[in-house]
Amino acid sequence: MKKILCLLSISILISSCASTQKIEALKPEPDDAEPLLYDNAVSFISIPVVAKLKDIENQTNKVLNGLIYEDKNIADDDIEINIWKQAPITLTNEKGKIKTVLPLKAFVKYRIGTNKLGIDLYNVKEFNFNGNVVLLSDVGLTNWKLKTNTEFKSINWNESPSVNVMGKAVPITYAINPAIQLFKSDIEKSIDEAIAKSMDFKSNVLDALDKICTPFQMSETYDTWLRISPTELYTTEAKLQQDKIMFDMGLKCTIETLVGQKAAKNFLRSDIVLKPVAKMPDHISANVVAVSTYADASKIMTKNFAGQEFGSGSKKVKVQSVEIWQKEGKMIIALDMLGSLNGKVYLSGIPQYNEQTKEIYFDKLDYVLDTKGRLTRTANWLLQGYVLRKMQEMCRYSIQPNLEEGKANLLKYMKNYSPMPGVFINGNVGDIQFQKIQLTNKAIIAFVKITGDVSVTVDGLK
Question: Could you tell me if 188 and 144 are in contact, meaning their C-beta atoms sit under 8 angstroms apart?
Fold first, then answer.
């Protein structure tokens, strides 16, 4: 009886050992490690800019203050004039030009008399009076600045003080008005410089680009980062329409979404040159590169296999981990198995994209040749078609969450987003269209195209 029990125990032990088999298939080595290179199509983002004339007026008033013109030499023409801005400037549209009304006050010293035999026989009178200067300006955009070409049109005095000359009251304006020729160019220049300084877009645009070009995390779950790298910046001529200054800017750039650690910023302020163009497209045409490293895609696919069993009856395996890489234009998928079969099996397939599910999957998935030979001898049941089909269902990588989160993050910057007080960004993002897949030695590269529109409005600039 003891012999029988001993033989039975040995039989069970042998049987249990025979039910777990080990496979040692040859690993298809990845292609040589080369630098991560891929084709990145150029994107173009058109940005119409609208600045309200009232904001330009407010900024100009901040810049232009106090003394505008000063003439302290009374000896050359018997007149000395100091002119100050008296009240806020107003800017309006007059037939496509900026009409500037500048309230001013003047302090005038007027000298009456003569110099005979070295004896001064002068009588100096002092006057304070005020008026309004009217100017008209053409509008342009030069070297990042709103450029105006201002022309002095008229000056209207609110009062006309007089002096007694040979017993007659003579209005002092007869002496001051010719002197306007002396200071009108100074006032024209002051207005042009003030508007240019108040509407210098360079620092604002470069600050905005600096923020835009700082890679930001689109998805914490998938650890994806969006990076924009600008190459050129364009602008059309500025135009005055109703109460607004309008022009178009355009950004030529490359756009990438990178999976894994935060990417470095590709932006140098000194390299950006503003190029004038006659016309700009009125939409966004963005070609986005989605870079998914094999290491990160492997982690996601490992999650897909969690809790899944493959096989039939008592012969089943579970996939402990997944590792993928590229070899000769195909994806190699290594499945580390535990159960009725221990060890790694290797599948190969061609990556494809499912437009409906937004998934990268692997077409023509099959065991690599050496793996298939080993399974024929050790675990032929794993070669059954339905097992392979079930594995193929798990061997997919959805980029839909990435696309949706990416779109949602972009929309945050297009719903009255204000990067600075008084500046607002609005726009829309259209459908995200898949273009193609490119394999490199380190990553799966998915190319998608995004269309939409965006605009910038300056309203209430501080």
Answer: no
In a domain, 3, yes or no: no
Output the pTM of the full model: 0.64
- State the CATH number of the domain containing residue 454: 3.15.10.40
Using alpha carbons, select from 279, 284, 273, 272 the residue that is nearest to residue 248: 279
Same domain? For 205 and 318 the reply is yes
Instruction: Judge whether residue 70 has pLDDT over 80.
Output: yes
**Do 167 and 224 lie in a common domain?**
no
Q: How far apart are CA 79 and CA 304, in angstroms?
A: 91
- In a shared domain, residues 236 and 361: yes
CA-wise closest residue to 434 among 287, 218, 256: 287
> Angle at CA 452, nearest 5°, toward 426 and 419?
30
Amino acid at 51: A
Instruction: Tell me how far apart the alpha carbons of residues 298 and 331 are, in angstroms, rounded to a whole number.
Output: 12
Contact 56, 152 (CB under 8 A): no
Q: What is the pLDDT of residues 94-138, one digit of tens each?
A: 998 999 999 988 888 877 766 654 556 667 778 777 889 999 999
Least confident of 14-18, 390-394, 454-458: 14-18
Q: Is the pLDDT of residue 203 over 60?
A: yes
Between residues 215 and 159, which one has the greater pLDDT? 215
β 43-52/443-458 pair status: parallel
Q: Which of 65, 54, 104, 97 is nearest to 193 (CA)?
A: 65
Residues in contact with 374: Cβ distance below 8 Å, sequence separation at least 6, in sequence order: 23, 24, 25
Domain that holds residue 302: 22-53+201-462
Same domain, 369 and 282: yes
Encoded tokens for 101: 């009304």
The total number of structural domains in the chain stands at 2
Q: What is the DSSP letter of 383?
A: G
Is 292 found in the same domain as 177? no
